[in-house]
Amino acid sequence: MKKLLQVLPLPAAAVGLSFVGLANLFSEIKLLSIICVTVSGWILLSVSLKIMFDFHGFLKQIKEVPLAAIAPTLSMGMILISKFLLTWSYWLAFLIWFLGIFIHVSLLIYFTTTFVNKKQLSLVLPSWFIVYVGIVVASMTASMFDQQNLGEIIYFFGFLAFLILLPVVLKRLKNLPLPEPLRPTLAILAAPVSLNLAGYMMAFDEKIVWFVVIQLVAAQALYVFVLCQLPKLLCLPFYPSSAALTFPLVISAMAFKLSTGFLGSVYPNMSGLFWFILRLDQAIALGVVPIVSIRYLRFMTKQWKVAKK
């Protein structure tokens, strides 16, 4: 068991996050949703056990900015999966939700003091959005725990963080291209606006139509950009950073689903187009996440065989 956990890369948490995202995206298909939650739970639990069994190794890993930036996908997964624990126990679900927020904030503070204060452009990566905007998953679930005010505050934090980070990340990408092992993280550009949009739709009872439209247009523009890069990114050799190809596609589809569900009542003539695009987005997410997961399994199998020798 320990050897298996040793070969499990920390970025695998992003795959676990993606599966619980799929469970939300396909919530109306109960069997698929249950399968996705189960897979997510196993992955997130495995990553958690890996960290607990080798906490010193974890602390060593997050001294590197790429791994430190991807680590909060574990806390994001915990926050999202708490929704599905409500059917078993409210207090267990709330504990996991609160613990996820606590871990995320702790990692955010660590990341800021360790890397941001260095003010080195070479350290800036698209995965920085995970650290600062990723916590908006709490906005998507806050109302389930009667914490709507907290959800709204977290949304505004994520929204401002995106506005501050975007020009910095774009400057980095323009001046210093990503090395090949980190190129899959380019897909993360599709995530922050969509995550903020999903958080807005879930956290606020009263929505401003023009604000929803602006966020949706921006989210879809970044999503289309990432889709154009996707064939090249999928053709790269496998790297643990390939996990970055998963959640951005899932949250983009989820944000589109939530926002067009609202906008469909405002613009009923667009409902048919919204339906078609949503099905396309869902198909892409449901296709890419298993592909990356299978590549992860192959990678881990090879690593496990080496570790056994």
From TrEMBL:
Source organism, top-level taxon: Bacteria
Main subcellular location of this protein, as a coarse class: membrane
Cross-referenced Pfam families: SLAC1 (PF03595)
Topology class, membrane: Multi-pass membrane protein
MF terms in GO: monoatomic cation efflux transmembrane transporter activity
A GO CC term assigned to this protein in UniProt: plasma membrane
InterPro entries to which the protein is assigned, alphabetical: SLAC1/Mae1/Ssu1/TehA (IPR004695), Tellurite_res_ion_channel (IPR052951), Voltage-dep_anion_channel_sf (IPR038665)
Keyword DNA-binding in record: no
Subcellular location, record wording: Membrane
Regions crossing the membrane: 7-26, 32-53, 91-111, 123-141, 153-170, 182-202, 208-226, 233-256, 276-297
Signal sequence extent: none
Key words of the record: Membrane, Transmembrane, Transmembrane helix
Descriptive protein name: C4-dicarboxylate ABC transporter
Species per Swiss-Prot/TrEMBL record: Vagococcus elongatus
